[in-house]
Amino acid sequence: MKEKKSEQGEGVVSHGVFKLDTGADPELDTMDLNIETLGEAKIKSPLTLNFIKGDEIAAFVRDDERLLYDASLRNHRKYVERGQEPPSFESAGPREMIYFDPTKVKVAMVTCGGLCPGMNNVIRSLVLQLWHRYGVRSIFGAKFGYQGFVSQYQHPFIELNPEFVADIHQQGGTVLGSSRGEQTVDEIVDSLERHNINVLFTIGGDGTLRGAMAINEEIKRRGLRIGIIGVPKTIDNDIPYVSRTFGHDTAVDQATIAICAAHVEAKGAPNGVGVVKLMGRHSGYIACKSSIAMREVNVVLIPEQRFEMEGEKGLCAFLERRLASRGHAVIVVAEGAGQGFFHTDSGKAKHDASGNLKLHDIGVYLSDKLKSHFKKIDVPLNLKYIDPSYIIRAAPANSMDAIFCNNLAEHAAHAAMAGKTGMVVGLWYENFTHLPLSVATCNRKVVDLEGDLWRSTVESTGQPTKLRKE
Amino acid sequence: MKEKKSEQGEGVVSHGVFKLDTGADPELDTMDLNIETLGEAKIKSPLTLNFIKGDEIAAFVRDDERLLYDASLRNHRKYVERGQEPPSFESAGPREMIYFDPTKVKVAMVTCGGLCPGMNNVIRSLVLQLWHRYGVRSIFGAKFGYQGFVSQYQHPFIELNPEFVADIHQQGGTVLGSSRGEQTVDEIVDSLERHNINVLFTIGGDGTLRGAMAINEEIKRRGLRIGIIGVPKTIDNDIPYVSRTFGHDTAVDQATIAICAAHVEAKGAPNGVGVVKLMGRHSGYIACKSSIAMREVNVVLIPEQRFEMEGEKGLCAFLERRLASRGHAVIVVAEGAGQGFFHTDSGKAKHDASGNLKLHDIGVYLSDKLKSHFKKIDVPLNLKYIDPSYIIRAAPANSMDAIFCNNLAEHAAHAAMAGKTGMVVGLWYENFTHLPLSVATCNRKVVDLEGDLWRSTVESTGQPTKLRKE
Amino acid sequence: MKEKKSEQGEGVVSHGVFKLDTGADPELDTMDLNIETLGEAKIKSPLTLNFIKGDEIAAFVRDDERLLYDASLRNHRKYVERGQEPPSFESAGPREMIYFDPTKVKVAMVTCGGLCPGMNNVIRSLVLQLWHRYGVRSIFGAKFGYQGFVSQYQHPFIELNPEFVADIHQQGGTVLGSSRGEQTVDEIVDSLERHNINVLFTIGGDGTLRGAMAINEEIKRRGLRIGIIGVPKTIDNDIPYVSRTFGHDTAVDQATIAICAAHVEAKGAPNGVGVVKLMGRHSGYIACKSSIAMREVNVVLIPEQRFEMEGEKGLCAFLERRLASRGHAVIVVAEGAGQGFFHTDSGKAKHDASGNLKLHDIGVYLSDKLKSHFKKIDVPLNLKYIDPSYIIRAAPANSMDAIFCNNLAEHAAHAAMAGKTGMVVGLWYENFTHLPLSVATCNRKVVDLEGDLWRSTVESTGQPTKLRKE
Amino acid sequence: MKEKKSEQGEGVVSHGVFKLDTGADPELDTMDLNIETLGEAKIKSPLTLNFIKGDEIAAFVRDDERLLYDASLRNHRKYVERGQEPPSFESAGPREMIYFDPTKVKVAMVTCGGLCPGMNNVIRSLVLQLWHRYGVRSIFGAKFGYQGFVSQYQHPFIELNPEFVADIHQQGGTVLGSSRGEQTVDEIVDSLERHNINVLFTIGGDGTLRGAMAINEEIKRRGLRIGIIGVPKTIDNDIPYVSRTFGHDTAVDQATIAICAAHVEAKGAPNGVGVVKLMGRHSGYIACKSSIAMREVNVVLIPEQRFEMEGEKGLCAFLERRLASRGHAVIVVAEGAGQGFFHTDSGKAKHDASGNLKLHDIGVYLSDKLKSHFKKIDVPLNLKYIDPSYIIRAAPANSMDAIFCNNLAEHAAHAAMAGKTGMVVGLWYENFTHLPLSVATCNRKVVDLEGDLWRSTVESTGQPTKLRKE
């Protein structure tokens, strides 16, 4: 796993609220953006669409409809000069010809990793789309993530149909259950073979999608015809070349509640300080956006930017000045921020069952450090620490995420039926796209410290550009 | 401070949702339930009320209107047999004759202790009632609790008027700020004298009201004419002889959000367990009620009932059985529960600045113990711990608390103008009452383990009556 | 149906936020407050309660536990003087001996009339209590109100069990459906007989309870042993001798949203006026309480008080003055207010299928009249009319109503199993009671124009005591 | 005003949830997309940004940074073939050199037309950005729309500063007030001149922006140097070449509450039908999106598609079939739908004070027609009609709209300070753009009946593609 920052994929933040960096990504020129298929699509789609204009009936999408990676005029000109075709993504949508016979295809889906608002919406819309639009009748859910494909756990498949999923979108979490932890690719593919599964939808984050890539490789090695379609799930919104992932907006919404509480607590006591820890292992999008939405935050700390506690330019000194002038303060810290404070001699980082880096608790660390600092300088401090994590991620999807999940699922179903594989459904410039798994997992999208989002964050908090000596 | 349980004052839970224990309280027979006054009320109230029936104009309340402590028929009969008058509380309400000249009276208010939904509503309604109904124009707020009366802190008084308080009820917390920590009674009374304050409204909990009692004693010792009117503030709802305190309902409402998240997390993972720590230092009302409201909780642990972790009847064994049969569980624990686990040889309990017992973190203790127990028996456990505290208490009041706070404040204003002192405004049998400070602080109201609330809680969770060997 | 106002039952407002009128009700002295039973309760209750004190196990309730109608000291003295026993209500709660064999009893429930928050909570808790605590296994729901018992409609019974009701409390409305319209008592009792129903729970309002009374009479006439237990459902909170009905608090909560919108609209335009019509056919509780909760309302109009549009003391003139001084205003009108404007010569009022008086639309009337008045005097007016009715009543119960519904249902189940009949479960002085159907339907509870609620309303709006010439 | 539908600007729906039509717009090739300026920007911006990469400091935006109108690969190729430059929009953002001296510039802002969530957020962020980032100290708000510039109304300017706007974003509506109705352009420009206003921000919809264009023409005619910057405000999201307008997401969110109530009502009665009227004068975006978010809707009717009541393919017949099979239904109708039913011989449409077409009430019409139809065929119908309009538009902005408004305002401030004029701030492909007023008002964006949104809507409701005979 390379942890390198994507300098260009960044900026690509959720639904159009921040300016996109218009510089083309040199890496993308060398990547294969074509989508694998299981074979020729020879079956007429049961969807009653067409290509006629003006009949008030929607159109199918052709495989050669593609969307530029970079829509800046500068990029257009650059490729014109070069005489090359610019990088572009395949457009998602219903195809006129499909690969699988809907009456025979057997479909499975699985949800992996931490909970995220909207998982049930994706499951529900996948089932409804496959059942009602395509007429698929064999739809199964694997229980508790990839464990559901491993015999030792003895989790039976759940049979999915419209009745089963009717009301699930009203609850947070996932009716299929989830789990962390790698499972043997061999066992999973054995299970897919044994159950005659033709399509597997994997709803999960970076680790899950890398797992899906490995499964896809094994499927090809065995010469099987099983489609692997990913729906990227990351509450942190850190999938590269995907401008928005589901659940992220809801998380920002929910996070504002904790910030509001921190603000009320901070104002309610002499030298009151509210510290809120929010999600964001590698990318501080939730911290930045919820802070801008509330505008009551005085410092935002994100994984993308190193900061110092001590020294004239450090956090403690800034907080001293803020309290001296205003008497209260709110600090928002993303969980992945300040991990440098925990580096040890051994230098070995720990990982959890999903292969995610185990993070030290920066919220507790910050709170302790601030308390001891103010004790040392003999200034009273009323610090209240709030860690709302599960409350945020267990929430049901808000309206915008509900719509978004519905669309993601529809496009995932279209791609699967058309015989696409080894891909995820993405969003780019407000259009749904097909993205190879290899591209979606090539790095992580992070907040551009020279981009609009960070500038807006810093402007709304009034914090210094950097909380450290140069 | 005596920590003894009130056997009868209990049952007296928030707004009528649980049966009241009808046994009369032997202690109350010996208590003085009369309200002190500063002197004879000789001024005609500016309120345009009267005693005429049928004119669609509300009535004044007479000082001899009183409400029975115990409304059971059995109690009526008992006192009839004894030929005695049963214990009763003075009714709150506007008096025809008042003590203070509204144009001259100078009023102060102070909020103390932890935040609680509705504090701003009380402040606002006090100001509006005094200003608009009585015509009082000198209203001040002390900043940061009793600190506001102590010169070393240099917090200036805030001048309060309708414009200042116009929108404050939309925010949680208190615009006056609050603080913990005892301040010298002498200094406070010095300050009241120096500023010519005639009435002090203290909005605070058990410790604050005990402080108010000491202030009142000092005032009397000095022969001053300063009224002390308390508005009891306890999110835990643990003031004796008061059936409901403001903010408590809102807290229950907010707590259900955390329980809901715990339930979603528990169902989302194999052997998922959600643990939620809620407020309740001595009294488990919030834990019980929010669990009944949600009905997704499997164990509620409250300070009133001792429980054991180990043994066949202990919590671990219960959880083993629950997970074996259902695969997930939700545990709600009040912060004051299980404090016996932390008793040390020294036996010395610690107290915070307000004189409240410092509690050990039972939520973290429980989570650690459960994790190590299941590790020992080699059963996988996915435990998620949620501690929403500040999010709950920093919320703005919901509609019912907003109305309730308004009424409390109105009655506090009426009592103050009538020259009452050394009292709090209470609620009993859906009627507002005047309660001597000595009665309101004589012990704590706790959940009756043989009452309706606990029975309903145990029935809704399905937990054993006791989680311990006899 | 007598429409007479209860002069004393009034004041009895929702959960303790307003002072109760302490005058005893002369009528009540003449009413029979005893509860009918189907026969001697000879079966030991399966509930593991007892009468032992100190064992942390809840107690059964004895039939002679009763609660005074009037808990004022004055009332106590009056009856002592008279040497009479004061009127009192039988306490609800689990009885040691029950009438029905839980393994054999067959139970039905029905929901009637307009939707109200909490109906599903009552259904759910009834089922859970009967099933899990008593071991009842034959529980049925009649579909669409009393229609469900009438063969022509061909609605089959719904079999109810814990799985069916698991999540229904998260939705508003009623899973059983509801309907208005009288059905023949004979047919209903025929159906009860034919299906061997032993207990019928009727969840409905005034009309439904009167229907239940007629059914009970017919049952007795036929010499049957069928229990009729009512759970009063009135969003308006207008059942006499019951201090609070479920759904009412939630309705107040929801109503504040509409008032808030009206306030925003009023302030957003020159001479902006927001008019909100709220529920309240005969009783203005929702209008009064939601107005106090929001404190942005300038006039509240309720059915209990006549008002005039024209004249110096009328609404139009008041609004002129308000707009001249402040530039905007909010008016809240209960749907039953001002019906006198619609009286015609024929004098014949119309009734809907439930026998409820058909109301004219006072909201539209008011809006039109105000518009034409201001047009006439050539003052620009920006009036926005909001009628949120279904949005309010279709909401799911809030936390407090959820708890309340649970308790009502538990007590209804206890009463039914004990062989009680011809009664409703009530709430009085924060205690659950048994009330004869005849008492619960004897008149309507209305806002006392000389009580605390109306005084508080008028004070918070600043409107004149009366909007009419004397 | 031309009312013509934009065939291509469509599809361009809110924040990336629906596929964009990739066909280039022939009209756009002929439009001037360049932005007017007041003169050369010669003053160094006070913002501490730069063009250095890697210093963690954000960059200025150059005037030649532009974004393609059409990011499809097909479009790229087309213009390559033609050897032309494709249409593109100027990028928004802070400029290195500005036109106005921040210490001397005098700025005004005005809000016009109907309320929309987020107006206060835009006002607040404009003030904060101008004040804190640029150091502007003369900021004024005109009261009640363009009336604020017309002397006869005598509305004084409001002086705006950070303290004044501190908490306004927590309320819906606009603190400046709004109004409809055209005012004389001459008078407005006179007022701008008289008050020495250098920049006017107009926050309003189609009519307001057309007004702004006229003002701009008059300013140029008089040779003045006054910048006119629009922030498009349309809850319906119908501005062409702008993919999203503020408040629209919040409106969709709020609309789901009404739909939910309709669903509960529909299921609660035999043959229950809930009819919800939503905003959408010309464009059905709110109706479509809220229906997809809820997925409980059975028919969506929008202005873009003609439908019939009668006939085998009409709405009545569809509803008959739906009720026969499922027993309940929910209909969502945009206010502008079905206006053809009201066409009269005179053919003269009426307009309101803002020049908007006066719509007939299609919700009431539908309800009446359906009731009479079912009466005629003697099928019982329980129809509940919900019209939540003001409740939706008076709501405060949700988190995403709060962030979006903040960004719009920041970019509007940057554009104004740089001396841009005659433009609005737009959003395109998730990037903020500058759009000439002439382009933003050239037509209306409508739902593409052959696009993704309508297809998704029809799929989620299960309604026929068309409710009419061909």
Verbal overview:
Four copies of one chain form a homotetramer. Chain A is an alpha/beta fold. Chain A has two domains: 14-241 and 402-440, 3-Layer(aba) Sandwich (Rossmann fold), CATH 3.40.50; 248-339 and 351-394, Rossmann fold (3-Layer(aba) Sandwich). The first copy, chain A, is 33% helix and 16% strand. In chain A, the strands form four sheets. In chain A, strands 3-4-17-16-10-9-6-7-8 form a nine-stranded mixed sheet, with helices on both faces. In chain A, strands 12-13-11-14 form a four-stranded parallel sheet, with helices on both faces. In chain A, α3 (119-134) crosses α12, α5 (185-194) packs across α6 and α8 crosses α14 (452-461). The longest helix of chain A is centred in the middle third of the chain and has 20 residues, at 248-267. The radius of gyration of chain A is 24 Å and the shape is globular. Chain A starts with 25 loop residues before the first helix and ends in a 9-residue tail after the last helix. Mean pLDDT of chain A is 91; it is low at 1-23. Chains in contact: A-B, A-D, B-C, C-D. The interface between A and D is large, with 80 and 80 residues.
